[in-house]
Design a protein that fits this description.
Elements (H helix, E strand, L loop, with lengths): L2 E7 L13 E6 L2 E7 L3 H7 L7 E5 L5 H16 L6 E5 L2 H13 L8 E5 L7 E4 L3 E7 L7 E7 L8 H6 L4 H8 L4 E2 L5 E2 L1 H4 L8 E5 L9 H4 L4 E5 L7 H7 L4 H11 L3 E5 L9 H8 L5 E3 L5 E3 L10
Parallel strand pairs: 3-4, 4-5, 5-6, 12-13, 13-14, 14-15
Antiparallel strand pairs: 1-2, 1-16, 2-3, 7-8, 8-9, 9-12, 10-11
Helix pairs in contact: 9-10
Length: about 325
């Protein structure tokens, strides 16, 4: 089952010839979420062969142009393509008014699909999406305007039963669900077969934390600690930490420092200032604090593989 992060845009306020503004796609079990929608997001979706029709949920971290300007063009394209299914948008409440005003002037006909708007606050963490496979919680961030990150947490799947055990113990179908949920099996002679004998080791639920446009803040550690992927902005090198604090951003060193405390599987840094022609120095600065640091590059797809949890012997 898929759990991936695809980078569509890694630049900050100003796009460059190589980097687009913020936009990412998270795929959890073939549920596709567009996280931020900077200018050119729909071009990047096409380049990365991600079907527009599979994007049913768009999460916006905050109402700055480099995270929203692509949204209006994408909605127009979806309309022209004849989309019929609802489009869910999660964002600060002010964006709902902006979208309504935009529709008055830029769409000749009513949209052929509904926009379902979910207002998102930034004061505290909140569950904003849930299905049978996944939960998404907000992460309060510290920026110049209300901003929120997003925590994707896979739900623990049911146990996989060993097919050979079904045959060996002649387990009836009615018992399968109970066994997958952790139950033991009692044979016709009264023998109790432990669940660990009947099933494969459990799979570790996967997780991803997305934190962009924020000052360094250890307040979010309880939410992001131990995630498989931590995406954290690194707009500046640390010699510009005063500018970072003034504008509500983080340095690469600060992103690495936070990762060193949160201990994710890997740190991905992005939202780079256009002043940097290459990002090697930013990556190296973060790696001094947390070695498992990687740059957000357009088109990169970071995969979190399923891992089974070893059972005690």
């Amino acid at each position: 089952m898929s759990f991936t992060l695809t980078i569509l845009g890694s630049s900050s306020a100003v796009p460059t010839s190589e980097r687009f503004p913020a936009a990412h796609v998270v795929n959890v079990h073939e549920r596709f979420f567009l996280v931020d929608c900077g200018e050119g997001a729909q071009i990047q979706l096409r380049k990365n062969r991600i079907s527009f029709g599979r994007i049913n949920h768009i999460l916006i971290s905050h109402i700055h142009g480099d995270h929203t300007f692509g949204l209006f063009g994408l909605i127009s394209t979806l309309s022209l393509l004849g989309r019929k299914t609802d489009l869910h948008i999660y964002a600060h409440p002010v964006l709902e008014k902006i979208l309504k005003d935009h529709r008055k002037y830029y769409y000749e006909y009513p949209l052929p699909f509904n926009i379902v708007f979910h207002p998102v606050g930034s004061a505290r963490s909140k569950l904003i999406y849930e299905d049978d496979k996944l939960e998404i919680h907000t992460i309060p961030l510290k920026h110049r305007v209300p901003a929120t990150g997003f925590l994707f947490r896979e739900k623990a799947p049911v146990l996989n039963i060993r097919k050979e055990m079904v045959k060996f113990y002649d387990i009836p179908v009615r018992e399968i669900i109970n066994i997958k949920q952790g139950g033991d099996f009692v044979t016709g002679t009264g023998e109790v077969i432990p669940n660990r004998v009947l099933t494969l080791p459990p799979v570790k639920p996967r997780s991803l934390a997305y934190c962009t446009d924020t000052k360094y803040s250890e307040a979010i550690l309880p939410l992001i600690s131990g995630t498989d992927i931590l995406y954290h902005e690194a707009t500046y090198l640390h010699n510009m930490h005063d500018r970072a604090a003034e504008t509500g951003h983080s340095t690469a060193k600060q992103a690495g420092m936070l990762a060193a405390k949160a201990r994710p599987g890997k740190l991905i840094i992005g939202h780079f200032s256009s002043r940097y022609k290459t990002v090697e120095a930013l990556v190296e600065e973060a790696r001094q604090e947390f070695p498992e640091t990687y740059p957000a590059n357009e088109g990169d797809c970071h995969v979190v593989e399923q891992v089974r949890i070893p059972r005690p012997s």
